[in-house]
Design goal:
Double Stranded RNA Binding Domain, four-stranded mixed beta sheet, 6 helices, alpha/beta, two-stranded parallel ribbon, Arc Repressor Mutant, subunit A, 2 domains
Length: 179
């Protein structure tokens, strides 16, 4: 998609027991998942910056398959997503996002690992920036990236969301996210 191309983005808020998350998709696939309780303003700001000519339409039917997989993941009924994506990033960002999708469920990697995996071992900071630009939280699992020392590093959804997602993937008794 070209930046100045007009397109329709369908969206809906998904409410779970713990969070409200905005999900958006085009006719090509999922293009955005918001942060926990990030609100419509967060989604609109992302769309204005990344898809400035998009027309927003609230339509549950257009996003229900994406929302269903997201809810199944949050309820430990799904470990992998198999849905089309409509990501619009640079070649570097898309390489990083592909590397993120290769991190197995329940495992973590460091920023250094990701930089090495894309054959750019000196690009650790750029990897962090690309991870921060990930538009589809959880589906492109940037929450699985931790600092070299094993601590929590930045996350668009906030550190509490990242910790909760990592706990969900590493716990057989994680909390139910449905309402």
């Amino acid at each position: 998609m070209k930046l100045n191309e007009t397109q329709t983005i369908y969206y809906r808020r998904v409410d779970t027991k713990h969070w409200s998350i905005y999900v958006a998709a085009t006719n090509k696939g999922l293009c955005y998942i918001g942060s926990a309780n990030g609100g419509m303003e967060e989604m609109c700001n992302w769309i204005e910056k990344n898809r400035p000519n998009a027309k927003l339409i609230e339509d549950w039917n257009q996003v229900s398959a994406y929302a269903d997989q997201l809810i199944a993941y949050l309820n430990e009924k799904r470990k992998h997503f198999d849905l089309p994506l409509d990501l619009a990033g640079t070649v570097f960002q898309e390489a990083v996002w592909t590397a993120l999708r290769n991190i197995p469920f329940g495992e973590t990697q460091t920023y250094t690992n990701i930089a090495e995996n894309i054959d750019k071992p000196k690009s650790i900071r750029a990897v962090g920036t690309a991870i921060g630009a990930n538009p589809v939280l959880m589906v492109v699992p940037c929450h699985r990236v931790i600092s070299k020392r094993g601590g929590m590093a930045g996350y668009r959804g906030g550190i509490p969301m990242k910790e909760k997602l990592l706990k969900l993937e590493n716990s057989e008794a994680a909390e139910d996210f449905t309402s």
